[in-house]
Amino acid sequence: MDQLSFKPGNKVFLMLLSFCLLGSCSFKGVTRYQNITYTEDQSMARFPEKQLNVFTPKKTKGAQKVLIFIHGGSWNSGKKEIYNFLGNRFARKGIVTVIIDYPLSPEYQVHQMALASAQAVKWTHQNISKYGGDPGNIFVSGHSAGGHLASLITVRDEYFDSLGYDNPIKGAVLIDAAGLDMKWFLEQMEYEPGTEYLVAFTDSPEVWKDTSPIYFLDENDPPLMILMGEKTLPGIKLTTERFIEKYKEIVPKPAFHIQKGKKHKPMIVQFINTKNKLYDKIFDFMSQ
User: pLDDT per residue over 153-181, tens digit each?
Assistant: First the structure.
């Protein structure tokens, strides 16, 4: 069953590439606010302290649209600093961008990761006007495991309900998202208890379903933009295709884009190129 794996291969490659690029990234025209704690809310008392970075364009008039990015890493690795280049690129193009950290496996499970992600959105909604952002125009995005969390908090209200807060997400941009139908995926994989994904998702099929966005789609959801690499990992391809078929029952012509020739890691690395046409597609989606 290994051919279905979500594993992105050498995750260190992306980390090293990103850190190398940070040294050459120009932050001209961008103001950065780093390591802002968003878990100070009383409802987050049982969570570790987690931070976010905010990137704002310097020369704009009026409040700007906001994009919150959730990093990938198989639910057990990754950190916001790897994606500073993404915050910089979007901010230079006029989008206030928030890059977050969140609790990881094995210490925490997916429900807790999603709740922390929702808390980051809540913090952003309450505070982003101080950084030039429009709280009425908040979008979330994520790559791989981060795409899963972004989709989950967008379509399932439980996490914001737990915070006593209305979901302020206006739309989501999913970049080669993993786990859109985690229940089906884990059933196909027949993992032994305690293996990597089950550490994050537990051994409970009920939890697998509760954390699979496909089972919570309805006509009241914010719009979704779904990007998938033509040569992505088989598990991502199959679960995304299942998700799209279900989504088409609600949105007959979804914003679904397959990028020819792209594998899983290049789906996020491509954003290093400031001239990548995906920026325009995302801006158009956020302007609908």
Answer: 999 999 999 999 999 999 999 999 999 99
Which is it for strands 51-57 and 96-100: parallel, antiparallel or unpaired?
antiparallel
Q: Please tell me whether residue 97 adopts helix, strand or coil conformation.
A: strand
d(CA 130, CA 102): 22
Is the per-residue pLDDT at 232 higher than 90?
yes
Give CA separation, 97 vs 5, 74, 82, 108, 124, in Å. 31, 23, 14, 26, 10
Q: Would you say the pTM of this structure is higher than 0.90? A: yes
Residue 84 contacts residue 22 (beta carbons within 8 Å):
yes
Distance (Å, rounded) from C-alpha 43 to C-alpha 128? 20
Contact 163, 122 (CB under 8 A): yes
Report pLDDT for 26. Answer: 46
Beta pairing class for 255-259 and 224-229: parallel
Report the alpha-carbon distance of residue 276 to residue 102 in Å, rounded: 28
Query: Which among 48, 77, 53 has a CA at the least distance from the CA of 67?
Result: 53
Angstrom CA distances, 245 to 23, 184, 214, stand at 42, 14, 10
Average pLDDT, the chain: 91
pLDDT grade for 8, boundaries at 50, 70 and 90: low
Q: Which residue type does 179 have?
A: G
Q: How far is CA 100 from the centre of its chain?
A: 9
